[in-house]
Amino acid sequence: MVRHAEAGHVPGLPDRERPLTEGGEHDAREAGELIGRLNPELVVCSPAVRTRRTAELLDLDAPVEIEREIYEAYPEELLELLCRTDPDVHTLVLVGHNPGVHQLVLGLTGTAGDGFPPGAVAVVRLPGSWAEAGFGTGSLVEMCQPRRFLGKST
């Protein structure tokens, strides 16, 4: 699960059209280095400009599908999307928005979390098939956020 990287606020620009900041572009590339090691087979993302650009900058060797329902989705709706994933897909990347993505991670894993800033990544392992995914069925493998949010130099 990936929360889109940091986006700018441009007066008069609709929310769906908000672009990534320069720092956000850097963070998305950084997240792609981690995610690429997982060899995902599919990326699904919201139609918002910032999520599409995040998915592009992850630079993964996997097709990207735009899923309209990810934008402003509740965790239950995101779970339904996961459950519909093709069983031949073993590793999926979902690029979306908060609070839905963070709440989905917390719900799947039963963990507590303080935050999920822009560009954050959570790796969740689910047992069984996608159709069997449910709240409390997953385990959190790793959660990370961009170094600049951790107070480290970039």
From TrEMBL:
Stretches that traverse the bilayer: none
Amino acid composition bias (Basic and acidic residues), ranges on this chain: 14-25
Gene3D superfamilies: Phosphoglycerate mutase-like
Pfam families, per the entry: His_Phos_1 (PF00300)
Region of interest called Disordered, as start-end residue ranges on this chain: 1-25
Name of the protein in its database record: Phosphohistidine phosphatase
Species: Sphaerimonospora thailandensis
